[in-house]
Amino acid sequence: ILKDIFNNKYSPSSVSRITDLALEEVNKFVNRKLDNRYIAVMLDGLFFYLRRETVDKEPVIFALGIKESGEYEILGFYLTIKESHNNYKDVLEDLYRRGLKQSLLFIADGINNLDEEIMNIYPGSDFQLCTIHYIRGLKSKVKEKDLEIMDDANKMFRCNNKEEAIGKFNEFKNKWENRYPNIIYNT
């Protein structure tokens, strides 16, 4: 592969040295100290095909922090066998161990009891379900003829300011609350 990419042949010992150097840099990155406070932390798993004995899709859980300056920072990435409560708990504990002591808001998908785990490790933080996961989740909660609710929810989350968002939420509520009150009051 390296020959194709770099148009150069590397000896096995050169490949080993390159790999060792790369792993050393990765280890420095994933073990570095973090700032103690971020405005928001987003957690999500992204699936990749990995070759072990077989080729399987496995998640890498990413943690992305937003600083008070608005700057984004990759806080860590974690190769796991599956997206589970325990794996996300391990991620949260690692972030805490590395220095993250406070975030005003955590944003993640609907892993069971993840919001409670966040409150245990980071008391005083708020939790928000990722809007993409929220919108996708609507599909399983409404009748097929009402799937336009997903478009309406998307409009609600794509506003430029607070006033516009409140207006879109009220439109969403007025249109859908009679048919799906549980969805409206959990938004």
From TrEMBL:
What are the alphabetically sorted keywords of the record?
A: DNA recombination, DNA-binding, Transposition
| KW Lipid metabolism (keyword) present | no
Q: Name one Pfam family in it.
A: Transposase_mut
Q: Mind telling me which InterPro entries this protein's record contains?
A: Transposase_mutator
**Molecular function terms in GO for this entry?**
DNA binding; transposase activity
Q: Which is a GO BP term held by this UniProt record?
A: DNA transposition
The organism sits in which domain of life? Archaea
List the protein's name.
Transposase
Taxonomic path: Archaea, Methanobacteriati, Thermoplasmatota, Thermoplasmata, Thermoplasmatales
